[in-house]
Every structure is written in C-alpha cells, then in structure tokens.
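W.,

You were right to be curious about this one. When I first looked at the sequence I had no strong expectations either way, so I just let the prediction run and decided to look at it fresh. Below is the sequence, 143 residues in total, followed by the output.
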Amino acid sequence: MSEPIVTIYHNPACGTSRNTLAMIRNAGIEPVVIEYLKTPPSRAELAVLAKQAGGARTLLREKDKLVAELGLNADVSDDTILDAIAAHPILLNRPVVVTPKGTKSCRPSEVVLDLLPTPQHGAFTKEDGEAVVDATGQRIAKG
C-alpha cells in the first residue's frame, strides 16, 4: 500500500505556512512542497483547487492590498479571482493543502489537522509558542 499523497502550496516566508508544513511532517508525512511564488500553479490548476476547496474566494488572500487595487470585491466572479491569482501568485491564501480528505486554505494552520490522513506523532507547538497538539498527538481544545 502506498502512502497517501499530500501537497502543500507553501511560502517559506510565512509563519502560518511553516507551521502547517511542520504539522504535516509531525504526522509522519513528507508532502509534495510547491513553493508557489517560485513555481506558480497554472490557471487550470487554480481552477481545480478552487473547485476542490469550495470556490475561488476561499483561495484569495483578501487582506492583501492588491485585492482592493484590482477591485476584487464580493461581486466579482470566480473566473476574475482565478485570473488575478494566476497573474499575481502572492494573492494565493497560503498555505493551500491537498490530501485525500480534501483541499483547504489552512488559516489558521491547525485547519490542516482535519485534512491529514494520519494522526500527529506527538506534541506540536507553533512558532509563536501556542501548543496545538499534546504529547499523545491529540488536538488541544482552545479555551
């Protein structure tokens, strides 16, 4: 039996993306890592990701100032959003993770725990010091 394939569209300069990648690895999975700023997904790949993730807007980094500059308000079509992300990969709401259980933009990073096909192999603490998984590999409930 082969190991399930997990892919992360990753930006190593982003703390959320680094935490997400570390949680994937904490589950004993070495994912396919796509540094999307160096190797942007094609417009066709973005369309597939959007369909899997529940719509193009879920892939859009809405807080980026470029969103307002490009007029990507709530009324624009998915095609317009996908065209913008294809032209400006920085607009991808990183990190996007694809597993056999689904596709999501993992913000906050612990969203990835719902997507992983295997459990965590031990405790995990985010870069900011927030503990999200205990020593038994169980998610820590937020207070």
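Here's what jumped out at me. Helices lie at 15-26, 43-53, 65-69, 78-87. And, maybe more interesting for your project: Residues 42-91 form one domain.

Coffee later to discuss?

I.
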